[in-house]
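Reply to dn_fold:

You asked what the input looked like. This is it:
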Amino acid sequence: MGERTPEEEAKELDRQTKWSDARLVEPLLFNFYHGLELLLKGFALWKSGSNPKLDHLLTVLLDSFMKEYPREVDLISAFQKYLANLQCRRC
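and this is what came back:
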């Protein structure tokens, strides 16, 4: 058997790593944080009963949730676990 071309090597690497962790982490994290965003927005809509201005910033949504639902300490704690230490300025 002869040597593979760079294109064949790339195809083989792609085939072998199709379901590797490195390829799954980014979409998984995107979906997770998008789900948190939608959940926080749902709570905001439920409480207001109208169409409040909803931001995409998770930290802003969390602050709003904590003001609107101060007794929901378990939910606040769960949200803070994943959102409190965000380093992104746009998060």
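The chain has four helices and no strands.
Hope that clears it up.
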